[in-house]
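tool=predict chain=A
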Amino acid sequence: MASGRAHDRATWQLALPFGLVFAPALGLAGVVSAATGFLVGGLLLSPDLDTRSNATRRWGPLRMLWWPYRHGLAHRSVLSHSPLLGTAGRLAYMAALALLASALLATLPLGVPTPPELLAAALELWQRQRPLLLSALVGLEASSWLHLIQDGDPLPRLPRPWRRLRPRSRTRSPARRRR
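tool=predict ok
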């Protein structure tokens, strides 16, 4: 399992090369979108948000927003360290927080959009900038894969009841053979 520094270093080193993959199809905007998605995914939306990690500390005072997420999930669980499912879960969690904040703040005279207005704006953005948003989403997921591969096992731990269903290895370790 890689250290937080190793995860960060690899994220910084691979963000631009990953973004350049999108240059032929989307130009400079695609490069920036994909590389930014990769950096955000690796540095702010890391699979390690379920622990006290560098990613959690980077949120500064807003790190308290991740407290329910961290305490609701076991580290390396299927919901935090799965390909696709982990990134989707973190994005859904952030969307739920944004909608909740919108609902609470819309009652104040601050000009904050209501949840339906926020959803309408998100849908309009999706319709207008779909290729760039997709490249950013692919960047988020790619950085998650990088993290999981660096940890040595891109597959998460199964929940305890399901671990018994996994077939056991037939080979014994040298220490067990001596018995």
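The longest helix spans residues 23-43. The chain is about 65% helix and 0% strand.
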